[in-house]
Amino acid sequence: MSGRSASVTVAAAVVASQMVAAILGASLLAASLLGASLLGGCGFRLVGSVPLPPALARVHIDAADTQSDFYVGLRRSLQAAGTRIDEDEPGDSVAVIHVSADSAAERILTVSTLNVPTEYELTYTLKFSVSSGGHELIAPEEHRLIRDYSYSESALLAKEREKSILSEALANDLVSVVMRRLSSLSGSSSAAR
Question: Is the pTM of this model over 0.85?
């Protein structure tokens, strides 16, 4: 009998723990929904979903390098903001973002006693302007971000990956700068027309 009562007790404990887990899961879901509704009600927006003026509902990106970290990040941010990217030749109703410079360059900052580089400086340069219907909405602007990173021959692959990640992070920072500039057009875009 004691073996049978022990198995019944174990089975009851398992059922009880499953019920507690289900109640906790439902409570967590309810708390998440409440939190999301409170954040949505206070005007909270996700990073990258910057509200853009109606003049930027359709955008053509005029860039020489359509594979750069900046170009990919800008497309993603524009689409997250509800903008439609126009791949064809832009018409009068399409705003054009002209990217005239989009490049990353590095230079040696320090060298060891053996004349081996130990630190580099990475510079990401962006120059852009925005026009719509023959009107210039944003005059050409140049933005430059600079970061340095250490270098070690013994960790060559890791340092190359670090450089790639740093370049992508600088490009994403420049995407944020451009998105803030585009969102600031809300008052000036209607005046330019």
Answer: no
